[in-house]
Amino acid sequence: MAEVVALVGCKGPAQEAEYLQILSAAMPGERLVPFRRMTDAERAGAQVAIVANPDPAEVAALPGLVWVQSLWAGVEKLVGVFDRPLPIIRLVDREMARTMAEAVLAWTYYLQRDMPAYASQQRERLWQPHPYRKPTDTTVGLLGLGALGSAAAERLTDAGFCVEAWSRTPKTVTGIDTVHGADGLLAMLGHCDILVCLVPLTPETRGLVNAARLAALKPGAALINFARGPIVVTEDLIAALDSGHLSHAVLDVFDVEPLPAQSPLWAHPAVTVLPHISGPTDMDSAAATVAANLREYRTTGQPPQGVDAGRGY
Fold this sequence. Notes:
With 313 residues, the chain is α/β, with parallel strands linked by helices.
């Protein structure tokens, strides 16, 4: 009988059944078993876990694991929870990068074409055109130049936007201005009409977009956060919006999800709330990526390259 591969963290029976069907079809030689159905012997013997949004305690209850494959790009819930070195492989998938870049472009257009203002005017039955601002006259700053940030930079550049990007360490991307480090970030913020957050959540990026950095943005700038909620300090963001220094924020991620009903963000006139939909996992594409990683492991005995535990990505 084939060795068991654990499936951990599905949101309910329907998602579990869907993921199990798609993953099993992509790797017919493997035997996938949801964590809740695994026997004690199967939990003890599993070498590989495929995880969605797992409870770290469940993953930690698989003592024989050799590596963990995430179905998400973000793995902050898993970094640092194990008492031994364990490769954690984040999902690097072309379809996810394409979908995220699509979302960044769509909501950048939303802001560049003054859609929040027109939505407000509709509620007031106000007929008032605004001056057109060209993409070439709009500077978009990207926080993060990984797979998602690089794909977004390409789409924005192709659409004619002026793109600058910040990364933790020096990077070069054809056609865009890149900066790094604290001084580089401050300089980029001063140029931004729209700031897009795409960095992973790590100890270094938690609270990265705070009052001081929001103040460094151009007056009237807007924010898009498609990364993780805690990267932006919510209280500081609301203050910047209330003061008029920022014109609008498009938020797809939050400190607590689903966003609690009592959150002031729901009713804020300068906030667009999205239910974490900017970069959904395409299971067919993700399953192909995971299956390739697993085949390589079965052939070589070596797990894929995991995230750097020190950096968190």
